[in-house]
Amino acid sequence: MHSHEKKYMLLLSLKSVEEKLKCKNFTRTHKSYIVSISKIDTLESHVLGIGSNKIPISRNYSKEVKEKVVQGKLWRNDSKS
């Protein structure tokens, strides 16, 4: 797991981490990645950007990722008005 400050070694499967984060602001993008929607800067067809990092989006997760990102970004913009 990566944060702004450091990296952490987890002894959990990504599936169990995903279950714990289900109702939070996170989405699975690939078999090896779960990301915070609020940290996403760019979204392209099969990759998203968080800072200078490029995170792959697999075909299996593509539709769900795009829906969650758009919904999350719209909600954040609405809450500022």
Short description:
The chain is α+β, with helices and mostly antiparallel strands and 81 residues long. The protein contains two helices and five strands; from the N terminus they run H-E-E-E-E-E-H. The mean pLDDT is 86.
In words, what does this structure look like?
By secondary structure, the chain is α+β, with helices and mostly antiparallel strands. The chain contains 2 helices and 5 strands, in the order H-E-E-E-E-E-H. Strands 3-4-5 form a 3-stranded antiparallel beta sheet, with no helix packed on it. A two-stranded antiparallel sheet has the order 1-2. A hairpin with a 2-residue loop joins strand 1 and strand 2. It starts with 13 loop residues before the first helix and ends with a helix. The relative contact order is 0.14. The model has no long low-confidence stretch (mean pLDDT 86).
User: Approximately what portion of the residues adopt beta-strand conformation?
Assistant: 15-25%
What are the low-pLDDT stretches, counting only 5+ consecutive residues below 50? none
Largest sheet, order of strands side by side? Answer: 3-4-5
Helical content class: 25-40%
Question: Descriptors for this entry?
Answer:
single chain, 81 residues, two-stranded antiparallel sheet, globular
